[in-house]
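Ops channel
N.P.: pipeline sanity check, posting one input/output pair.
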């Protein structure tokens, strides 16, 4: 094929880069990694503001420490591996924010430091960096410290004088339900004046930020929709079998890290499926696992484990839900 006039001497290094990915293909110069990470940070602002109001110094301290640790570990890792720096894409900042928001306010500083470092190194760097990791780095870090420091991950030990509620000396809503059969009002779950991890207490803040992500197209709405659909169906069925006036399906949807996980963690584009059917399957799988863990295990919460388990299944889900090409036919699958 002849070159266009005036282009005969164009060096190969300046030729357009061809990116090949699963169909359907769309070209968008605006949908860059940096823009997506900026959207996530903006969407997290309502959650962060509520955490500041409820937990005060604890929220500021954990968020700063986690972000600084994540950025530092990623920069050092890239330098040791002699690779170009990647901190400018903002992914390490987002990992630090989400990891910090998944911690209880009273977690010791070393739990934050070790978990953030483990999340970046074990959850991201060892797989080859951004775009290559299988598991969500923030959840890898939280799982690491959850196993290594289970006592330190308990949410208790501080009284919030600013709100007039003994928030951090009380059990979390799901723990109170699991261990003592006590309910929590929906208003407390919506506004956030309950105990729990920094970013999970206010369902309303998570919804506002989550809707922003979906409206911007940064997060696929099918994944959180699948999560919420599965939780609604299972909790409603359980409620019909054994009605509990103090804990309804709406409580299940509003309590714990469900909304934070559904909108900000499960929608990670690297560790979630790329097909439409796959995203529905992925979300429904997470919601189902969350409810199975809540009902059948000793853990009051199951979002972290559910996300990590479905992360491992995401490649298989994509393989089983490949869409037909335009005008194509199913044909026979090759072995």
């Amino acid at each position: 094929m002849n070159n266009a006039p005036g282009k005969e001497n164009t060096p190969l290094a300046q030729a357009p880069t061809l990116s090949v990915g699963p169909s359907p293909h769309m070209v968008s110069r605006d949908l860059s990694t940096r823009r997506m990470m900026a959207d996530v940070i903006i969407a997290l602002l309502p959650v962060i503001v509520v955490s500041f109001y409820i937990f005060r110094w604890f929220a500021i301290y954990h968020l700063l420490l986690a972000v600084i640790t994540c950025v530092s570990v990623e920069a050092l890792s890239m330098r040791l591996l002699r690779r170009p720096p990647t901190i400018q894409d903002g992914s390490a900042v987002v990992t630090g924010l989400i990891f910090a928001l998944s911690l209880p306010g009273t977690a010791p500083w070393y739990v934050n430091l070790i978990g953030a470092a483990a999340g970046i190194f074990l959850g991201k760097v060892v797989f080859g960096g951004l775009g290559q990791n299988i598991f969500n780095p923030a959840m890898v870090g939280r799982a690491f410290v959850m196993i290594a420091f289970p006592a330190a991950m308990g949410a208790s030990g501080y009284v919030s004088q600013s709100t007039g509620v003994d928030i951090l000396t009380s059990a979390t809503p799901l723990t109170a339900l699991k261990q003592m059969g006590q309910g929590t009002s929906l208003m407390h779950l919506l506004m956030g004046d309950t105990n729990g991890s920094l970013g999970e207490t206010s369902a309303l803040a998570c919804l506002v930020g989550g809707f922003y992500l979906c409206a911007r197209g940064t997060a696929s709405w099918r994944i959180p929709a699948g999560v919420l659909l599965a939780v609604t169906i299972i909790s409603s069925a359980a409620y019909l079998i054994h009605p509990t006036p103090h804990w309804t399906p709406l409580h299940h949807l509003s309590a714990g890290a469900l909304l934070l996980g559904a909108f900000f963690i499960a929608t990670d584009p690297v560790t979630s499926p790329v097909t439409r059917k796959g995203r529905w399957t992925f979300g429904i799988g997470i919601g189902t696992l969350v409810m199975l863990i809540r009902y059948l295990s000793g853990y009051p919460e199951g979002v972290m484990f559910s996300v990590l388990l479905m992360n491992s299944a995401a490649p298989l889900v994509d393989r089983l839900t490949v869409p037909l090409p335009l005008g194509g036919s199913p044909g026979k699958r090759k072995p």
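N.P.: looks fine end to end. Residues 33-318 form a domain with the Ammonium transporter fold fold (CATH 1.10.3430).
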